[in-house]
Amino acid sequence: MRSSNFETHDHNQCVKGAIEKVALTCAEKKLQLTPIRRRVLEIMLEEHRAWGAYEILERLGAEGQKSQPPVAYRALDFLVKNRFAHKIERLNAFIACSHPGENHAPIFMICRNCELVAEAHSEPYNGQLGQAARSAGFQIERTIVEAEGLCPKCQ
Questions:
Q1: Tens-digit pLDDT profile for the chain (155 aa)?
Q2: What are the backbone dihedrals phi and psi of residue 25, each rounded to the nearest 5 degrees, phi first?
């Protein structure tokens, strides 16, 4: 379970790779990656942190794009529904997925100081949560794990 968001990495390649993966997945699944959806994803990829919908709207407006709330929310809904982004419940904000389009159960580590967010993967179906669910006859469809603490730079 490793996440590159807290590690030094080539962020330009990180962004480029994510955009390419999303575009490819959209083409394969015949999904429309409209210019506004793509731009919202690009904004979220600029930094490894969660973005509020109104922050995204402000950026769109500053760029001369449509900046009415439904524009951003429709783009965010599309990105989350298709696993290209996630909603961070604790922050009521959104973050680009580290592994877009893949079926996985993310764990979010949120720095309480700088608000950097790192995504890692878990296997809740195979661990203690999966065992508890099976014992109760419960079928897990989605999990969200959010941990708050200090990133390596803020420690």
A1: 334 465 666 667 778 888 999 999 999 999 999 999 999 999 999 887 899 999 999 999 899 887 788 888 999 999 999 999 999 988 899 999 888 877 777 888 999 998 888 888 776 666 788 888 889 999 887 777 889 999 999 99
A2: -60, -40
Neighbour-count burial of 79, counting CB atoms closer than 10 A to its CB (0-12 exposed, 13-18 middle, 19+ buried): buried
Give me the DSSP letters along 70-113: HHHHHHHHHHHHTTSEEEEGGGTEEEE-SSTT---EEEEEEETT
From 103, 65, 83, select the one nearest 94 (Cα to Cα): 83
Any idea where the domains of the chain sit in the sequence?
11-149
CATH entry, 11-149, from 1.10.630.10, 1.10.10.10, 3.40.50.300, 3.90.1150.10: 1.10.10.10
